Amino acid sequence: MTQQPTPPGAQLNLRGAVDLGALAARSTRREEAARRAAADPGAPAPRSPFVVDVTEETFADVVQRSAEVPVVLDLWAEGYDQGAEALQALADEYAGTFLLGRVDAQAEPQLAQSLVQSLQARAIPLVAAIVKGQPIPLFTGSYPTAEEIRPVLEEVLKVAAANGVTGRVEGAPGEVADEEPAVPPLHAEALAALGEGDYDAAAAAWQKALAGDPRDAAATEGLARVGVLRRVHGVDLATARAAAAAAPDDVAAQLVVADLDLVGGHVEDAFARLLGIVQRTAGEDRDLARTHLLELFTVVGTGDPRVVKARAALTRALF
Question: Which InterPro entries does the record cross-reference, listed alphabetically (predicted)?
Answer without folding.
Answer: Thioredoxin-like_sf (IPR036249), TPR-like_helical_dom_sf (IPR011990)
